[in-house]
Write a structure and sequence with these properties.
mainly beta, 3-stranded antiparallel beta sheet, two-stranded antiparallel sheet
């Protein structure tokens, strides 16, 4: 099974899901959950809902769900 390439972009997410997120290229990345609420895509950052379209950040995703342990 081929690995899905998830590249970093400054383009905000266009669909709900789990994403890697960092404010600056040298910042530590964290996983965030982008939700759909009333037709918008907010994320909880830093301590409140923020529309992803207004955040200047670097995104990678959406991260596909896990299929369990890998078999060798």
């Amino acid at each position: 099974m081929a690995e899905l390439a998830l590249n970093w972009t400054t383009e905000p997410p266009k669909q709900p899901g789990s994403y890697w997120f960092k404010r600056e290229p040298t910042s530590r990345e964290m996983m965030v959950q982008v939700r759909e609420t009333n037709g918008e895509l907010p994320v909880w950052w830093p301590n409140q809902d923020q529309p992803v379209a207004k955040l200047r950040a670097h995104w990678r995703g959406p991260i596909p769900p896990s299929t369990g342990p890998r078999r060798q």
